[in-house]
Design goal:
The protein has 143 residues and is mostly beta strands. It has one helix and ten strands. It has one domain: Lipocalin (Beta Barrel).
Length: 143
């Protein structure tokens, strides 16, 4: 199946996922890997609360506990992803339409691949600018 251009509904994302993220920091010439779990919890309306927790191994074996929280809101164009304090992060429209987050002076370009739902999906993120030069590939596996 080719990449789908439609965006998944809440029920396709809701629940628990295993998360694996590969990180390549081109500027520091370091690689990292995150392993953990994420959960999309339904909230009011068509809103999902996202929480991720796990362990990040970075560089020469440095290990950190790591977590992230976001709010995913279903909007007519797709999914509006916001930080947990409601600041906008990016809008997911379709697999063939990259999402953007301008975190001046750096730029985040995110590409989502939902073609293997309901069991798996992926987000590829390229971050460039004077402060960052990173590639992140995150794969979600259904628990």
């Amino acid at each position: 199946m080719d990449h789908i251009s439609s965006i998944p509904e809440s029920d396709a994302l809701a629940g628990a996922w295993r998360v694996a993220r590969d990180i390549h920091d081109h500027r520091a010439e370091l690689k990292g890997h995150f392993e953990g779990h994420a959960r999309f919890t339904p909230a009011e309306g068509d809103v999902l609360q996202y929480q991720e927790e796990g362990r990040l191994t970075y560089g020469a074996g440095q290990i950190f506990d790591a977590e992230r929280r976001y709010i995913w809101r279903r909007v007519p164009e797709g999914w509006q992803v916001d930080f947990d304090d409601n600041r906008p992060f990016h809008l997911i429209r379709a697999a063939d339409h990259p999402a953007r987050h301008d975190c001046a002076p750096d730029l985040y370009i995110l590409r989502y691949q939902f073609d293997a739902l309901p069991r798996q999906w992926q987000c590829q993120c390229r971050i460039t600018g004077p402060r960052k030069d990173l590639d992140l590939v995150t794969t979600y596996y259904r628990d």
